[in-house]
Amino acid sequence: MKIFTKALLPILLSTIWISISEFFRNEFLLKSFWVDHYKKLGLIFPSEPVNGAIWGFWSLMFAIAIFIISKKFNLVQTFLLSWFVGFVLMWLVIGNMGVLPNGILLYAIPLSLIEAFVASFLIKKMS
Predict the structure, then answer these.
(1) How far is it, in rounded angstroms, from Cα 9 to Cα 95?
(2) Which of 58, 61, 92, 125 lies at 20 to 30 Å from 17 by C-alpha?
(3) pTM of the prediction?
């Protein structure tokens, strides 16, 4: 029972938070950025259910990474390192591939900082 309350529950709640945050940001706030950018590239923005499932899996992996990082660092360090690993590296890759609409970063950076902080806070306080 201790492993559930100290590890699995914080990871699960953080995964839920990350998933909700990602869905809200990318489906409601910023979807038009993605769709328009992909259209300019001659592509269709991938928004099939399988893509959502993969983002759900990404959310779980991100929560697990935050949990592991949190064991070695304080809240601020966990938050900043997690944000860097989860978002900055992803943006570098998709920017390098040419599929990142740069205008999205104005919104995505502060929202991703909030997402990473809340997830780090949940994990640090619950584990």
Answers:
(1) 34
(2) 92
(3) 0.94
